[in-house]
């Protein structure tokens, strides 16, 4: 079934139609300077498609919360923990509820972390809940910046990774990204490049006009038209819109934003009381003394400076003793292993995103007062994969495990833990793990996905799969010179523990 929604009118007065099903497969990028009508365009798109598809709006300014009154969107305030936001996002996909994630009033870094956790929950939903969903991100340059800004590198990587997953890998999970930005030059190129539909509004800077022209296939002279576009007018191109650049005027909307553009209005008549209004504090105004800048110090005589320079250098004071007891590297590693073991004790740990697990890891390290700089995100992924396989510290130092870790390093990070679980079974001569065990380690309930992972390992030349006469599975590792014992693929999930290894 083809569903077309009305976005407005073309230059000739004919309706401007947008193919919603094509949009779900090809994604949309909206660009325009402040005041060009981007939010109005997004609101028109959301209102026209509300009855056809589930929607999620990442709203940094709280402008789209008014959709709740007319169309039943649920407003999710982002002042929650990242774990709670991830779980809410998972339930949203399960129950197919349209929502607005309001990030209003939060600092830039907090907005990035909250949006990353929420989009991670949408992305990591179970396959059974991969229903079509429009994910609209307003002011996308805040969440996928082209360059580092004032926020921390960790927050930027988390947010940029979530946006990249949305635009690059979201289609197979039913997620259709619709991103809007003021300037293409501020938006990460790998995020913008994944969109196949474009609505380009008014812009003035040459670099932004050049990038918009490249996306629309226009020459440099043709990009001059972007300076002359009126508010609410855009140039459309893409399989869901038009095969050739098409000027479009966006139609009216039924809801309005809480914030409006400033309008000129006459000043109030104050008369002679204006000075009294300014200098007299109000009844409820708190009187606070203004900080006064200290006067500059008097200049020192040159003789005093020379005398000070001629004096011997004072001894450096010994560094104060640390508030925490000093421990050696082995004890620190043991403390980190204990934190990882605590995380793995949670039955839901296998189904959380790596970003949420890493935040939980950092909090637990602070609670245990683990000294030193904590491992970064990449080091945590490797440590967590080894811990999930149930390998103790002494076993990791063996030659066999070092070879297994080297083989796992050639795989994507999200499947390394599954590979190490099978490798441990082979090195310890244990039965091959079941499909349910491997699926749980991957963060899924799908047994077929576990079988596909083993096939993926075999296609990479890392393992060889075979069965015995009882149809029990055996996984051989040619590079390690060992193989697992026969195991029942249909057995229930039993994740390995370090106690079993000992």
UniProtKB/TrEMBL annotation:
Q: Does the keyword Glycosyltransferase apply?
A: no
- Ranges for domain AAA+ ATPase come to 24-213
Question: What SUPFAM superfamilies is this protein classified in?
Answer: P-loop containing nucleoside triphosphate hydrolases
- This protein is called ATP-binding protein
Low complexity composition-biased segments? 490-502
MF-aspect GO terms: ATP binding
Q: Does the keyword Transit peptide apply?
A: no
The UniProt keyword set, sorted, is: ATP-binding, Nucleotide-binding
Q: Where is this region: Disordered?
A: 481-502
The cross-references to InterPro entries, in alphabetical order and at most eight, read:
AAA+_ATPase (IPR003593), ATPase_Atu1862_pred (IPR014588), HerA-like (IPR008571), HerA_central (IPR002789), P-loop_NTPase (IPR027417)
């Amino acid at each position: 079934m083809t569903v077309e929604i009305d976005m407005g009118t073309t230059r000739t007065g004919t309706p401007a139609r947008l193919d919603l099903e094509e949009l779900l497969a090809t994604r949309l990028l909206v660009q325009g300077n402040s005041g060009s009508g981007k939010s109005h365009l997004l609101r028109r798109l959301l209102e026209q498609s509300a009855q056809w598809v589930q929607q999620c709006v990442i709203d940094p300014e709280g402008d789209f919360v008014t959709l709740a009154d007319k169309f039943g969107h649920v407003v999710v305030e982002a002042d929650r923990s990242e774990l709670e936001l991830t779980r809410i996002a998972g339930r949203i996909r399960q129950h197919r509820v349209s929502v607005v994630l309001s990030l209003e009033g939060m600092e830039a870094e907090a907005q990035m972390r909250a949006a990353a956790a929420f989009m991670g929950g949408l992305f990591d939903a179970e396959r059974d809940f991969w229903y079509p969903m429009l994910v609209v991100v307003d002011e996308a340059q805040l969440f996928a910046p082209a360059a580092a800004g004032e926020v921390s590198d960790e927050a930027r990587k988390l947010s940029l990774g979530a946006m990249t997953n949305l635009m690059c890998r979201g289609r197979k999970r039913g997620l259709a990204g619709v991103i809007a930005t003021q300037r293409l030059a501020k938006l990460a190129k790998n995020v913008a490049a994944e969109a196949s539909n474009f609505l380009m509004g008014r812009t003035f800077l040459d670099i932004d006009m050049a990038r918009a022209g490249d996306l629309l296939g226009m020459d440099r002279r043709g990009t001059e038209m972007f300076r002359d576009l009126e508010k609410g007018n855009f140039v459309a191109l893409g399989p869901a819109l038009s095969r050739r650049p098409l000027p479009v005027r966006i139609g009216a909307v039924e809801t309005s934003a809480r914030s409006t553009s400033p309008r000129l209005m006459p000043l109030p008549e104050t008369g002679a009381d204006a000075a009294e209004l300014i200098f007299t504090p109000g009844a409820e105004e708190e009187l606070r003394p203004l900080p006064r800048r200290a006067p500059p110090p008097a200049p020192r005589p040159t003789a005093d400076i020379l005398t000070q320079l001629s004096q011997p250098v004072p001894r450096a004071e010994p560094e104060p003793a640390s508030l925490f007891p000093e421990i050696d590297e082995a004890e620190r590693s043991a403390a980190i292993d204990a934190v990882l073991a605590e995380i793995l004790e949670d039955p839901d740990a296998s189904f959380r995103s790596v970003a949420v697990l890493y935040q939980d890891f950092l909090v637990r390290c602070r609670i245990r007062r683990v000294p030193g700089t904590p491992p970064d995100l990449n080091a945590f992924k490797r440590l967590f994969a080894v811990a999930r396989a149930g390998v103790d510290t002494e076993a990791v130092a063996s030659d066999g495990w070092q070879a297994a870790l080297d083989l796992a390093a050639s795989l994507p990070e999200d499947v390394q833990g599954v590979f190490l679980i099978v490798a441990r079974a082979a090195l310890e001569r244990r039965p091959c793990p079941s499909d349910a065990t491997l699926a749980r380690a991957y963060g899924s309930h799908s047994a077929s996905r576990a079988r596909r992972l083993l096939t993926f390992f075999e296609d990479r030349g890392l393992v060889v799969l075979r069965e015995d006469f009882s149809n029990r599975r055996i996984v051989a590792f040619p590079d390690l010179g060992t193989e697992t014992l026969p195991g029942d693929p249909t057995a229930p999930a039993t994740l390995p523990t370090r106690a079993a290894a000992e």
